[in-house]
Amino acid sequence: MKKYSILILLYFSLTTIVSNAQDQKYILADFNSYNQSLNNAVEHHFSQLNDGEKVAQLIMPAIGAYGQKEVTIDRLVEEKKIGGLLLLNGTKEQFKNWVIKYNSTNKENGNLPFLFSADAEASLVNRKIRNSTPVKKANKLQTKKEVVTVARTISQDLKEIGINYNFAPVVDMSPNKTVGWRSFGHVPDSVIPWSDAFIQETQRHNIIATAKHFPGHGFVEGDTHKKLVYINGEMKEIKNYPPLIKNNVTSVMIAHIAVANNSPFNTKGLPSSISKEIVTDLLRDSLNFQGLIVTDAMNMLGVSTIKNANVRAIEAGVDILLMPLDAAKAHQEILSKYKSDENFKQKVDESCKRIIRAKLCTAGKLFPNTP
Q1: Which CATH architecture has domain 28-366?
Q2: Mean pLDDT of the region 357-361
Q3: Confidence check: pLDDT of 206 > 70
Q4: 220 pLDDT band (50/70/90 cuts)?
Q5: Which of 70, 248, 255, 291 has the fewest C-beta atoms lying within 10 Å of its C-beta?
């Protein structure tokens, strides 16, 4: 009888442990904190992926008016070659339907859930997501309170759609005509505190915020959509990032901007997005950023003409390739390198685990089949 009592007690103890694990709740604030349960969950889900599925986590194409056709995304999802999706220029209702569709497909196929992203900046959101709640553009905001209100309004729309990753705010200064009107740089002293306010309000809603465009687009001339542009000498906007990193911004976007006449961070005529000096040596090591590093769109002319740019971006230290020209080809190139280069494999594995961690934190719970 005593033996059976012990077995029954052990059974209920194990049941309680499993139940508690399944009931574990995560929030985005856990991303940068030590959490053994979260660490274990990341390792578990990582261990369940094959090589191709690990590589897929790093690839994020777009769907919408300026993205890939739905049939192309359907194929990439079925073939398990992508880990996220940028919803780019469409209606709020269409985006919501796509989130529902791909969440269902991923569940059926045993894929990890996606990071669904958007360019939901104050200055762009109402054009990028039609029928979204109207907000003032960034360069029209006058107080931090207004910034918080706008961030809250945007976040509520994103949550309604199912978007968990916002490529905002722009923390560049205002002189550049391409990005300046999209930041809070019209009041120079407000760029850091207002950007931080936008980030904190966004992440309070369990949506990843993104400081961009690192290392700084405000004082360069030209448009990286059209050509490679340069920072010549001092990177004046780097000072905008340490306070945001200290306050746990989860993501930073790397621009396709070259840096010249700046030792030790000269990019040798290449965009920052494929420069180890900028991505790893400066952002990851010198500024101690531990979050997600995402490229600006890889189809922009500042990088798209460079041979093997997808692999080179991962080698430089980025976690997520945004909008590669051909996502299936990018997957093939990265997977081939993954299987033949141990150092490259380690980089991909580290990025994959960061992405899984972000997915668990934004989901707020464990994925199915977690022990």
Answers
A1: Alpha-Beta Barrel (3.20)
A2: 98
A3: yes
A4: confident
A5: 70
112: pLDDT strictly greater than 90: yes
User: Count of alpha carbons within 13 Å of 73, Cβ hemisphere only?
Assistant: 23
Predicted confidence (pLDDT) at residue 9 exceeds the cutoff of 50: no
Q: How far apart are CA 163 and CA 125, in angstroms?
A: 13
Asked if 64 and 90 touch (Cβ cutoff 8 Å), the reply is yes
Cα distance between residue 314 and residue 316, in whole Å: 5
Rounded distance between C-alpha atoms, residue 103 and residue 114, angstroms: 7
pLDDT digits (tens, 9 = 90+) for 273-312: 999 999 999 999 999 999 999 999 999 988 999 999 999 9
SS3 339: helix
Q: Give the largest Cα separation in the chain, rounded.
A: 82
Chain position carrying tokens 């958007």: 118
Q: What is the enclosing helix (H) or strand (E) of 22?
A: helix 2-23
Number of residues written out for the chain: 371
Across the range 230-247, mean pLDDT stands at: 96
Query: In the chain, what are the domain boundaries?
Result: 28-366
Query: Which amino acid is residue 63, in one-letter code?
Result: I
CB of 200 closer than 8 Å to CB of 247: yes
Handedness of CA 76, 211, 250, 204 (dihedral sign): negative
d(CA 287, CA 285): 6
- E strand map for 131-234: 165-166, 210-214, 229-232
Tokens representing 150? 């706008």
Give 368's pLDDT tier (boundaries 50, 70, 90).
low
292: exposed, middle or buried (C-beta count within 10 Å: 0-12, 13-18, 19+)?
A: buried
**Which residues have CB under 8 Å from 143's CB, separation 6+?**
none
CA distance to 32, 56, 125, 167, 329, per residue, from 64 (Å):
32, 20, 14, 16, 20
